[in-house]
C-alpha cells in the first residue's frame, strides 16, 4: 500500500498503474488508447480524493481553532501579563500531546502575547470534545 494515502486513493493509483502497464503491452492502437484514457481517469479520481481529504483536514482544524477561540472568549477574563499586568491577547493554539485527559476531553496549549511588553505565555486549556 502507498503510505500516507487512504485506501481509496491507493486503490486509484494502483488501478492507474495497471492501466498504464496494459497500455504499454497493447499491440492494438485502439486498446492502447483505451487504457491510456482509463489511466488518466484513475489519476484524476485519485487527485480528487486527495483534494477532498485535504479540505476535510483543513475544515476540521478550522473548527477546532474556532471552538478554542469560543472557549477563550466565553471565559470571564483573559490572562494578565505577569510582567506589566496588561491583558494578554490570544495568538494561537496547538494540541497538547502526552497530556492525560478523559476520552471526552481534549487538551490544547493556548499561546498568548502581551501587546504592551511582548511577553509570550502559554496556558493549558481543557475542553469537551464535540
Helix-strand topology string: HHEEE
Low-pLDDT runs of 5+ residues are none
Query: What does the radius of gyration come to?
Result: 25 Å
Quote the distance from N terminus to C terminus.
32 Å
Q: Which structural class do you get from the secondary structure elements?
A: alpha+beta
**Lateral strand order in the biggest sheet:** 1-2-3
> Overall mean pLDDT score?
83
**Proportion of beta-strand residues:** 15-25%
The percent of residues in helical segments reads 40-55%
Shape: elongated
The major sheet is characterized as: 3 strands, antiparallel
List the total number of helices. 2
- How many beta-strand elements? 3
Question: What are its keywords?
Answer:
130 residues; alpha+beta; 3-stranded antiparallel beta sheet; 3 strands; elongated
Sum this structure up briefly.
This protein has two helices and three strands, in the order H-H-E-E-E. With 130 residues, it is α+β, with helices and mostly antiparallel strands. The chain starts with 6 loop residues before the first helix and ends with a strand.
Tell me what the structure shows:
The protein has 130 residues and is α+β, with helices and mostly antiparallel strands. It is built from two helices and three strands, in the order ααβββ. It has helices at 7-25, 29-74, and strands at 89-95, 105-113, 120-128. It has a three-stranded antiparallel beta sheet with strand order 1-2-3, covered by helices on one side. α1 (7-25) runs antiparallel to α2 (29-74). The longest helix has 46 residues, at 29-74. The chain starts with 6 loop residues before the first helix and ends with a strand. The model has no long low-confidence stretch (mean pLDDT 83).
Amino acid at each position: 500500500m502507498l503510505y500516507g494515502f487512504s485506501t481509496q486513493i491507493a486503490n486509484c493509483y494502483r488501478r492507474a498503474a495497471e492501466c498504464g502497464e496494459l497500455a504499454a503491452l497493447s499491440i492494438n492502437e485502439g486498446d492502447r488508447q483505451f487504457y491510456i484514457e482509463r489511466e488518466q481517469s484513475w489519476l484524476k479520481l485519485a487527485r480528487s480524493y486527495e483534494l477532498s481529504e485535504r479540505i476535510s483536514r483543513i475544515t476540521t482544524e478550522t473548527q477546532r481553532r474556532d471552538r478554542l477561540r469560543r472557549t477563550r472568549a466565553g471565559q470571564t477574563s483573559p490572562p494578565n501579563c505577569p510582567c506589566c499586568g496588561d491583558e494578554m491577547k490570544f495568538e494561537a493554539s496547538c494540541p497538547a500531546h502526552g497530556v492525560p485527559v478523559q476520552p471526552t476531553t481534549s487538551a490544547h496549549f493556548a499561546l498568548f502575547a502581551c501587546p504592551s511588553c511582548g511577553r509570550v505565555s502559554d496556558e493549558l486549556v481543557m475542553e469537551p470534545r464535540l
